[in-house]
Please model this.
Amino acid sequence: MAFVSNKRICVFCENAEQKINYKEFKTLRKFITDQGKIIPGHVTGVCSKHQRHLGKAIKQARNIALLPYSVDPRHF
Amino acid sequence: MNYYETLYIVHPALESGRLKDIILGVEENLKKSGGTPLTTEFWGKRKLAFFIEKQKYGTYVLLQFNGEGKCTSDFAVELEHNPNILAHLTTVIEKDAVKEIEEDLETQIAGKTREIEKAESTSEDGKKETTETETATEAAVTELNTEPEGTAPVRSEEGEPAEKAEATKAEETTTDESAAEDNTETQEPAKEETAVSEEE
Model:
């Protein structure tokens, strides 16, 4: 049986060119739920360093109305 | 000397002429507060993630500038007191992140308005197409929902549904036979057969 590792590799560690910025809200949208909550790193596989940057960028994007603070689940 | 960028949202009701005046006014305010504007990028009108001052849409403008740290606070106060600006966000950037945009502000505004008009026209066409596809998918779903009624007992390999299917088949065959022949004497053995199959 082939060795299958369950270890996830961070997307941002793999691609050094892909920087986390609040202006790239389309990429940030992948890391929030439909309800608008930030998805934890152990679910998405993002490392703790980049998860910190992600959280900061998502909060900045929320401040300028690029991303929602919360979405009512009745409007899905 | 640090490099900063400010993304601010202008009121969506403003048209291209007044919009340009407001953007130039913001740059003048920045100069008064001690900064030097480097580039202005016009993002265009887009839908806000939530309502700001009862507005659903907003015109985004990105302004990159450099100056001392104090100029940002004065500039923020100026933006706060401007009634045409719904929201703003100032962040520190590196020198490499400063964009070089050759287009004038007028051409940017004109280009973005054309893009928005095109997008609106395509979205309307897309909506029509989606409604057609939705109706097609609904029809397919209803067909799928109707099909399994006759086929479900045959698919299941368990004992009870198979027996039921056999019983129903027997009933159908007997009724067909009885209908083909005269409906007097031949119905009695057929009924007996169905009774036996039901008992089984």
In short: The two ends of chain A are 43 Å apart (CA to CA). Chain A has four helices and no strands.
